[in-house]
């Protein structure tokens, strides 16, 4: 089983070539779907995967046990139809735009962010440097301020949204030495423009300046 929450929609994945039996992912990241919807993809729909959730499916109401046929056997209760419709539109959007084209564009934006942040004294960057194949995110910290406080200031003063803390990746932060406060994580999409990157750099530089001057 492969967790591809950060990669599906960005990095090309071929389950057959990669020997993946089960692929799980969220729908609201690289697939541009709404929150609250995800995917479980099976190489063999009749693999006999154990079901942990039981209940009415609506298709075989005359049968008390869960159906044995996929996908009904994995879908107890009322499906999240608005989420499914939104995810379908998101997938169509990625296909229309071109997955590889979007990925390369996002990587260029992330490399630009990495470079402008690396020029700011007191900013610590984590992860692979520019030119390395990775998902389009950048993690950093500002010396003298916790990640949570940085995120709060960025949103409150500049309307910039970032993910702060441990980002559901405790072991990654343990390996990076960023426990217990984690990092500030910046991600981009096809809607991120050059002005957005400039505003982020200016905001981070301002915070670092204010820390140095004891203003914050």
Automatic annotation (TrEMBL):
Top enzyme category: transferase
Organism: bioreactor metagenome
Start and end residues of each Aminotransferase class V domain: 1-200
Listed Pfam families: Aminotran_5
EC number(s) from the headed UniProt entry: 2.8.1.7
InterPro entries: Aminotrans_V_dom, Aminotrans_V_PyrdxlP_BS, PyrdxlP-dep_Trfase, PyrdxlP-dep_Trfase_major, PyrdxlP-dep_Trfase_small
Required cofactor names: pyridoxal 5'-phosphate
GO molecular-function term, one example from the UniProt record: cysteine desulfurase activity
Name of the molecule in the record: Cysteine desulfurase
Keywords assigned: Pyridoxal phosphate, Transferase
């Amino acid at each position: 089983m492969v967790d591809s929450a950060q990669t599906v929609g960005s990095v090309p994945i071929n389950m057959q070539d990669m020997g993946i039996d089960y692929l799980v992912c969220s729908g609201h990241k690289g697939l541009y779907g709404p929150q609250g919807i995800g995917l479980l993809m099976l190489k063999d729909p009749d693999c006999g995967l154990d079901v942990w959730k039981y209940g009415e499916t609506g298709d075989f109401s005359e049968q008390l046990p869960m159906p044995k046929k996929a996908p009904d056997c994995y879908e107890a209760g009322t499906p999240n139809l608005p989420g499914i419709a939104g995810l379908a539109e998101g997938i169509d959007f990625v296909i229309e735009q071109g997955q590889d084209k979007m990925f390369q564009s996002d990587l260029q934006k992330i490399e630009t962010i990495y470079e402008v942040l690396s020029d700011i004294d007191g900013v610590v960057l984590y992860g692979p440097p520019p030119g390395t194949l990775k998902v389009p995110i950048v993690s950093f910290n500002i010396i003298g301020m916790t990640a949570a406080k940085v995120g709060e200031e960025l949103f409150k003063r500049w309307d910039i949204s970032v993910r702060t803390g441990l980002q559901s990746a405790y072991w990654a932060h343990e390996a990076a030495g960023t426990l217990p406060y984690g990092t500030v994580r910046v991600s981009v999409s096809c809607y991120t423009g050059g002005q957005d990157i400039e505003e982020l750099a200016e905001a981070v530089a301002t915070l670092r300046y204010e820390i140095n001057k004891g203003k914050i």
